[in-house]
């Protein structure tokens, strides 16, 4: 988005938003980024089939080693499949070991990307989702109003954590990386909500530790190998 659009939506959220200005300091480690996590997961699990949703400048995609299958999906730039994630999944015939989701950062689209990814996930495969831990209301506001933008990805994580057959946690690195396994939920979130899209950031701020099941980078493989 251009600066004028960001400014417009910033004013919009100031007028019509939650008017909640508290911040969260996650203390993300400076020496571990999302590509470090993905490369380590691929190496340790000996994965051979990789899919990335949302490539942009290939900051992550270019760092992934050559594998049996390596597909990057983006409608504008980067990767090797030009189109939306919905278009890709409609024609896809492949199954993957590792899927990284970093496309449109809205609850509805991320949830759709995750559910589509689950359909094409190999046994013992993993789905990783970027930008799960927003630090303040404006960083996660939709429409986008900041350059550094997580969107409301976090809402899809909260919803998935209430499911019986999906196991989810969030790694405390690089704006938060969700980790999803297709198996029995080992720590189900007991939270009743009729419409997760309407969750407020104020509620997230008060409950984020419980909502997101945050783990350190060092604990990732304990979760993956459980």
Strand order of the largest sheet: 3-2-1-4-5-7-6-8
Order of helices and strands: HHEEEHEHEHHEEHEH
Strand content is 15-25%
Distance between the termini: 41 Å
Supply the helix-strand structural class.
alpha/beta
How many separate structural domains?
A: 1
CATH superfamily: Vaccinia Virus protein VP39
- Rg over CA atoms, rounded to whole Å, is 17 Å
CATH topology: Rossmann fold
Strand and helix layout:
Elements: H1 3-16, H2 34-45, E1 49-53, E2 69-74, E3 81-82, H3 85-91, E4 96-101, H4 107-119, E5 121-130, H5 137-140, H6 153-160, E6 167-171, E7 177-181, H7 201-212, E8 214-215, H8 220-224
Could you please describe the fold and organization of this structure?
The chain is an alpha/beta fold. It has a single domain, classed as Vaccinia Virus protein VP39 (Rossmann fold), CATH 3.40.50. The protein is built from 8 helices and 8 strands; from the N terminus they run H-H-E-E-E-H-E-H-E-H-H-E-E-H-E-H. It has an 8-stranded mixed β-sheet with strand order 3-2-1-4-5-7-6-8, with helices on both faces. The longest helix is centred in the first third of the chain and has 14 residues, at 3-16. The protein is globular and about 50 Å long.
